């Protein structure tokens, strides 16, 4: 890795953190699952979102124009599907029984399912591609020769994953401080917010 590639990688990693850090439906879901199910479940949820960020980063970095155009045209069905998925998650979160201790991961398939769910949910926001295109364009501005787009994609993935590891680790460390009654209140509040995000996403289509 030369100096230019390293610089682009580090800049993309910062972008990955900035994209992942704002509290939205994915961040809320990750925190709730960490608090209720433990570190492994929360981290799997966050890494699913990080993988989706990397996919959108790849689309922007490699300038896959036909895919960008297709996702832009599919904005309405994607938003409708994403909102419906958020409502399902809100319903399940509201009615989920509160565990008195973190349930250990039963198997890799269960964790993979959590990751796949947030991966699909994150991909329902194709507007993210526009941000990646603008950001990656600015990263290449003023450079006589661009490094491989793979460094940009890898940076986004590492930055996003690092954020989810930090967030879930901090919540898991403090988990035992929350009583079952408090965790139930948090679950109910999370369900309401997830439902609100779904309605807001649909409202953007009007």
From TrEMBL:
A Pfam family recorded for this sequence: LysE
GO CC, alphabetical: plasma membrane
Keywords in alphabetical order: Cell membrane, Membrane, Transmembrane, Transmembrane helix
Membrane-spanning intervals of the chain: 6-29, 41-68, 74-91, 111-138, 150-173, 185-203
Organism: Acidovorax kalamii
Main location: membrane
Membrane topology: Multi-pass membrane protein
Record's subcellular location: Cell membrane
Keyword Cell membrane: yes
Keyword Zinc-finger: no
The organism's place on the tree of life at top rank: Bacteria
Name by which UniProt lists this protein: Lysine transporter LysE
Sample GO molecular function, one term: amino acid transmembrane transporter activity
InterPro entries with a match to the protein in the record: LeuE-type
């Amino acid at each position: 890795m030369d100096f230019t590639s390293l610089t682009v990688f580090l800049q993309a990693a910062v972008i990955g953190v900035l994209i992942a850090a704002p509290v939205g439906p994915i961040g809320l879901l990750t925190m709730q699952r960490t608090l209720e199910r433990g570190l492994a479940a929360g981290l799997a949820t966050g890494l699913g979102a990080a993988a989706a960020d990397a996919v959108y980063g790849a689309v922007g970095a490699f300038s896959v124009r036909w895919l960008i155009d297709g996702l832009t045209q599919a904005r309405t069905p994607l938003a409708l599907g994403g909102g419906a998925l958020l409502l399902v998650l809100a319903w399940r979160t509201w009615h989920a029984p509160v565990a008195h201790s973190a349930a250990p991961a039963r198997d890799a398939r269960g964790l993979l399912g959590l990751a796949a769910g947030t991966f699909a949910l994150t991909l329902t926001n194709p507007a993210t591609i526009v941000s990646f295109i603008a950001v990656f364009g600015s990263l290449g501005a003023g450079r006589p020769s661009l490094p491989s787009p793979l460094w940009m994609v890898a940076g986004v993935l590492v930055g996003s994953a690092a954020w989810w590891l930090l967030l879930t680790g901090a919540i898991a460390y403090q988990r035992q401080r929350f009583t079952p009654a408090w965790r139930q209140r948090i679950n109910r509040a999370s369900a309401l917010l997830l439902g609100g995000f779904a309605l807001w996403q649909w409202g953007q289509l009007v």
